[in-house]
Specification:
Blueprint (H helix, E strand, L loop, with lengths): L2 E2 H8 L3 H9 L7 E2 L5 E3 L1 H15 L4 H9 L4 H37 L24 H8 L1 H13 L2 H23 L7 H14 L7 H13 L1 H10 L3 H17 L1
Antiparallel strand pairs: 1-3, 2-3
Helix pairs in contact: 3-4, 4-8, 6-7, 9-12, 10-11, 10-12
Length: 255
């Protein structure tokens, strides 16, 4: 069965203009195009569109999405991971709904009283909120002040286009590492270590870490909630995988 572009737009909420753009950049070509120029999509195309929309929800750019879809990563495993993450977010939001509802009930209960509000269990006020992010920047600034200053200078000199290009490169490498991880490739494998050399050379554009500092950067990727969340958008466990690969690289190349 095939659906017209108008039917796909209606079902998915994605505009026909966007679908045509996805076709033009090769992200979502239709199954066939009629003699009248109308695009028609089949079930496999709808499944691909669903994956695109899921990764857009995770804030991935179109180029990064195409790299994932065109790679050899197990699509079912990727979809299963998206499902797990969405369910976890749903559970967190449901907890927040209960938290706010409980607070409202307690405030309303005392609204007509003495004007003094008593919260029975103060810790309940914060149930469901994500943990606060530690100040990773402050730690880097304290431990490696020269590196921090050099990084700030390089970043300040980058144009918007340079910054976007650098971010695309970083994301593309994260996707390549995820492919190795999903395939079960050991972190000491030469192909993984070649990626770590690319990563290290990229870091050296900003500062030149020694073995200890490079290992510390890997721990930051794994331990800092914001860094870890960025890696988890690609694949769960990727931050730990890169951290371990960086340790091997530092011991072999930087010690």
């Amino acid at each position: 069965m095939a659906w017209s572009i108008a039917e796909v737009a209606r079902m998915s909420g994605v505009t026909s203009r966007t679908l045509r753009h996805y076709d033009e950049i090769g992200l979502l070509p239709p199954a066939r195009t009629g003699s009248n120029g109308h695009r028609y999509y089949e079930e496999a195309d709808l499944l691909r569109l669903q994956q695109i929309l899921l990764m857009r929800e995770l804030d991935l750019g179109l180029r990064e999405i195409q790299a994932v879809l065109d790679s050899q990563v197990d699509r079912v495993a990727v979809l299963r991971e998206h499902h797990r993450r969405l369910r976890a977010e749903r559970d967190r939001l449901e907890t927040l709904v209960r938290t706010v509802g409980r607070t409202l009930a307690e405030l309303e209960e005392h609204e007509e009283g003495s004007g003094m509000t008593k919260i029975n269990r103060p810790e309940n006020l914060f149930e469901g909120f994500e943990s606060a992010r530690p100040d990773a920047e402050a730690e880097v600034r304290e431990r490696w002040p020269a590196a921090w200053e050099r990084t700030q200078q390089v970043v300040a000199a980058m144009s918007a286009e340079d910054m976007e290009r650098w971010q695309r490169e970083v994301t593309a490498q994260m996707i390549r590492l995820a492919e190795f991880m999903v395939a079960g490739t050991p972190v000491a494998d030469p192909a993984v270590q070649a990626e770590m050399d690319v990563h290290y050379q990229g870091i050296c554009r900003f500062w030149t870490p020694n073995a200890e500092a490079y290992k510390g950067l890997g721990r930051t990727y794994s331990d800092d909630p914001q860094f870890r969340a960025n890696y988890d958008k690609i694949a769960e466990g990727l931050a730990d995988y890169q951290r371990d690969a960086m340790v091997v690289y530092a011991d072999a190349r930087l010690s």
